Amino acid sequence: MGAATSIVHFEKMYQDEAQKPLDASDLTDAQCREEVQRMRKLLKEKFSPLQEMADIPITSPFRDVPMGPPDAILGIKEAFDKDTYDGKVNLSVGAYRDNDGKPVVLPSIRQAEKIILDQEKNHEYAPIAGLAEFVEVSLKFAYGADAEVLASKRVAGLQSLSGTGSLRVVGEFYAKMFGTATRVYVPNPTWGNHIAIFKNCGLDVRKYRYYHPQTRGLDLEGMLQDIWDAEPGSVFLLHACAHNPTGVDPSQEQWKMISRLLLNKRHKVFFDSAYQGFASGDSEQDAWAIREFIRDGHFISLAQSFAKNFGLYGERIGCVSLVCSDEAEASRVLSQLKLAARAQYSNPPLYGARIVHTILSDPSLHAQWALECQGMARRIIEMRQLLRATLESKEEGAGASSSWAHITEQIGMFCYTGLSGDQVKRLAEEFHIYFPVNGRISICGVNTNNVQYIADAFHAVTAQSSSKL
């Protein structure tokens, strides 16, 4: 039944009702009969305009909604898929690939899945805070099994939806507890979703200097100056390891300087840890900055993701934690985190959390996973070395002025090449090599089969640019 037909139907129904004769035998009171007549008259008057409305066209309330901007990475993937060239290369992929360019499921993950299947688990809702056993092993993974903050029960933690969901829960918590005027400083550059997440929480998002384009390394002086200049009590988002997109991490001595200045200015520290174990191949080493800040006395917030290091990209497994002053405070903070989670997604997913818990709680499986994660990190490191060596071998005596040392000085799956937007465009149009215009490449897309082709193309666009100077 169409909208106009429906209106006519209801209008006729009420008109028919109003015109029905009264059955006086059912009424014993004259006043009651008068009231019924009055009500019928009112109904007729109320619904008679519906006939006039029947011919008015009904339009969608969404007709003026504008098209949202396309996702940059998705656009690159679409262009890559449309390219029919056999030797095309996608260097934008944000997931690990083997030397043949194929996705990888770690053997330890497969083994954990078999264990879970044999346990015949049900599919009931998880608690709002997630699986308690998963949260426990996640916190030990980040803070250390013997961490004082865990022994004293002063960490509020709950399972969340990978990195994005973890960041959003904390962002909502900040907005509610400290107000939307709270300033959140993110590194320049940073993972693109950081800014969108915090802005959608209503927070005041700002940037601090981080990457130095000329040195292709850390702009420590600029970073420290921005920390000093920021309003006391601001939030500073830090990448725990393998900074995305630059691959530039502070040294331990630089981390100490950053920590002490943040503490001196009474800023709040929020760590985003998406690559623990996946950066250096050692999960303990990759957690160094987090633990150093705890030792210095920071009350940090932490967002953990298990997408990259466990290869559980589609399972959306993460953990949120805030370090508090005591157990009672942690309990209050957790109650607020649960309220934020409840309003967003109610309950986190079970399957991936069970996998991570099974691995981290079993010494044998944990050791196996550590070796497998180390293998992934090693391949990335080796591809960095190979790409740099291949590029430098081409430039010997060629007169090109580009330096490629930064490729091996950076860490993690992403590398900031230093290539310009025009050079990136040429690489796509002439050489069928695709990655974002900011020059960030995923080292996971480099392998022994395509590294020579990539180096040839990079050399071609940089040598030509140098010759024009």
UniProtKB/TrEMBL annotation:
InterPro entries: Aminotransferase_I/II_large, Asp_trans, NHTrfase_class1_PyrdxlP-BS, PyrdxlP-dep_Trfase, PyrdxlP-dep_Trfase_major, PyrdxlP-dep_Trfase_small. NCBIfam families: PRK09257.1 (NF006719). It comes from the Eukaryota. In eukaryotes there are cytoplasmic, mitochondrial and chloroplastic isozymes. It catalyses: L-aspartate + 2-oxoglutarate = oxaloacetate + L-glutamate. Belongs to the class-I pyridoxal-phosphate-dependent aminotransferase family. Its cofactor is pyridoxal 5'-phosphate. Its EC number is 2.6.1.1. This is Aspartate aminotransferase. Residues 88-458 form the Aminotransferase class I/classII large domain. It is an enzyme of class 2 (transferase). GO terms for cellular component: mitochondrion. It holds the Pfam family Aminotran_1_2. One of its GO terms (biological process) is amino acid metabolic process. Keywords: Aminotransferase, Pyridoxal phosphate, Transferase.
